[in-house]
Design goal:
Chain lengths: 330, 273
């Protein structure tokens, strides 16, 4: 596998301070990278550096084998970018917006027209092609912008919040599209706050915090670094009582037990321990409605990393109101 | 800046798209239509009618004023009833057409980058495979071409209005005359380019059109005052003299544009956003 993106100590500052600080990672071609982090973490600056829009103040990167600081135009010919805001000119129709970009990407007039019409059809916007985009909904704008990013069949896609503003059906379609693009062998860098969609798509995740890369790797690998053992859930129809918790904790191979919602959450040495835990519960006369091992989701991993960063930096974790309420309560 | 050849297809595409978008924006087109209409059609029409009907004593007073002393000689060679019309329409009002390229350039340059930032379309442009130099060139042309076209069209209309209004007195076509022609064809585009050399950079650094207009106003207003104040004297020069002034303005404009094009980079544009 060749690296689609390789960065070494990539650094970029503005007057307000460092936006990206010593970024080092490598992404193989055909992989999907979820670029995660709170607002201001440096995600957009990273994308701009990788696409040669901004120049690094230190460090270097190779994108598709080229240096963005030197061969920006050559890289941009092979990359497609969906910006968080659709970036459509409201004074132009959807067709005019796309034709403009197609011509700048080197399409002849007739080829541009064919390709634009084909993509508008594919994204369900053919009937709005001659309408000014000023009157479009967020979802319609996003669809036109996605079509624009895919005009030239890019090898590498930078997608910034591709599903924000979309309805559930639109979100599902975009996730399926990204999945398909990855299956075709395209590399995708997905900057998003929607951890669910990132979890479904990402081969790798990168967590940025104040411009620094705080975690990088496959979500499972990062989970293994954060937690040892295998998570599991037992469904008893009600939260486990103290006696049940104690009985489960006595099963060899069970590391910890916590009552939870309709049952209990366990951490096991390995998945072979689960049948013994179920047997122990049944032995106590409990009805077991469900039992399953539970892999940590990307969301679990992300928030665990965020909490770790917050502890290290003495900050409030950024997982929204929960952490703040917990702090207020304590 | 790289040394590759200019991608004219890309430049034409950007210019075409920007002009199409501008044509659909009333906030931009209205001042570009109203100001030339007032300066080059309504004003000469009104003043021309007044000058045509002014009593001889006022003509004598006007020609006796210190402002007119310098240009009185060629005018005094005209028949008495033609003097005030030629003075006002030919020498005093016609130089105002230099305000048009300055004004149109200022409006379009503000839209060129600050407008794109405001509409959040600039980020898309920056991620396209077009060189910094070609992008700069395209944005300059987007403002320059309409500025020159509107100036030339306005000047033609001005000439028509002057000749129609003055016909009962003049009985001949007296605008355009040589200096007027040189100012319109040679000097006005240079003035527009000079303004753009300053304003494109202002626009690229500003975050909104309003900010670009305010900063641009501070830059362009002195130029407008200079143009308005000095252009009457310009008409006193022989045609070759006006041509020489044009050379100086062209040189200044090109030097400024070259200097600013060196400082114009994607990186600065993105960092300023």
């Amino acid at each position: 596998m060749t690296a689609a993106i390789r960065t070494e100590g990539l650094t970029r500052g503005f007057r307000s301070g460092l936006a990206v600080d010593g970024l080092t990672f490598e992404l193989e071609a055909g992989q999907v990278l979820a670029l995660l982090g709170p607002n201001g973490a440096g995600k957009t600056t990273t994308v701009r550096l990788l696409d040669g829009v901004l120049l690094p103040h230190a460090g270097r990167s190779l994108v598709l084998g080229l240096d963005p600081a030197v061969d920006g135009d050559a890289i941009r010919r092979r990359t497609g970018v969906l910006t968080e805001n659709a970036g459509l000119d409201d004074r132009l129709t959807s067709r005019e917006n796309l034709l403009y970009v197609a011509r700048l990407r080197g399409f002849t007039r007739s080829a541009a027209t064919r390709r634009v019409d084909e993509l508008l059809e594919r994204f369900g916007m053919a009937d709005r092609r001659d309408d000014l985009t000023g009157g479009f909904s967020t979802g319609q704008r996003k669809r036109v912008a996605l079509a624009r990013a895919l005009l030239h069949d890019p090898e590498l896609l930078f997608l910034d919040e591709p599903t924000s503003g979309l309805d559930p059906a639109g979100t599902r379609d975009v996730i399926a599209l990204i999945d398909q693009l990855a299956a075709e062998g395209r590399t995708v860098v997905l900057a998003t706050h929607f951890l669910g969609e990132a979890g479904r798509l990402a081969d790798r995740m990168a967590v940025l915090h104040k411009g620094r890369l705080r975690a990088f790797g496959a979500p499972d690998e990062l989970a293994a670094q954060l937690w040892s053992g295998v998570g599991a859930e037992l469904d008893f129809g009600a939260a486990a009582d103290a006696a049940t918790v104690a009985a489960l904790a006595d099963v060899p191979g069970v590391r910890s037990v916590h009552p939870h919602g309709d049952g209990a959450r366990l951490v096991l040495d390995d998945r072979e321990v689960l049948p013994r835990a179920v047997a122990a519960a049944v032995g106590r006369g409990l009805a077991v409605y469900g039992a399953a091992t539970r892999r940590p989701t990307l969301e679990d991993v992300y928030f665990a990393i965020e909490r770790r960063i917050a502890e290290e930096e003495g900050e409030i974790a950024t997982d929204g109101f929960t952490a703040r309420l917990a702090e207020v309560a304590s | 800046m790289n040394r590759t050849r200019v991608d004219w297809v890309a430049v034409r595409t950007i210019v075409g798209r920007d002009i199409r978008a501008v044509r659909r924006s009333k906030a931009i087109t209205l001042p570009m239509i109203l100001v030339p209409t007032v300066l080059l059609i309504l004003l000469p029409m009104a003043i021309g009618v007044l000058a045509r009907n002014a009593p001889t004593s006022q003509v004598e007073n006007a020609l006796g004023s210190s402002l007119v002393q310098g240009i009185a000689q060629p005018i005094l060679s005209l028949p008495e009833r033609e003097r005030l019309v030629v003075l006002v329409l030919g020498y005093l009002l016609s130089p105002l057409l230099l305000v048009i390229p300055l004004m149109v350039s200022a409006v379009l340059a503000a839209d060129a980058f600050a407008g794109e930032k405001e509409r959040r379309t600039l980020e898309v442009v920056l991620h396209l495979p077009i060189s910094d130099r070609d992008l700069f060139l395209a944005k300059v042309l987007t403002a320059l071409l309409p500025a020159v076209a509107i100036t030339w069209l306005g000047s033609a209309l001005y000439a028509v209005v002057c000749n129609v209004v003055a016909w009962p007195v003049m009985h001949r076509v007296f605008v355009p005359f040589a200096q007027f022609g040189v100012v319109v064809v040679w000097l006005a585009p240079a003035v527009a380019l000079l303004a753009l050399g300053l304003l494109v950079i202002v626009s690229s650094r500003a975050r909104t059109t309003q900010e670009a207009n305010q900063l641009g106003g501070a830059v362009i207003l002195p130029l407008i005052f200079v143009a308005a104040a000095q252009s009457s004297a310009l008409m006193l020069l022989p045609p070759l003299g006006v041509t020489a002034v044009g050379f100086v303005v062209w040189a200044l404009a090109l030097a400024l544009l070259w200097f600013n094009s060196r400082r114009f980079t994607r990186d600065r544009l993105a960092a300023a956003g």
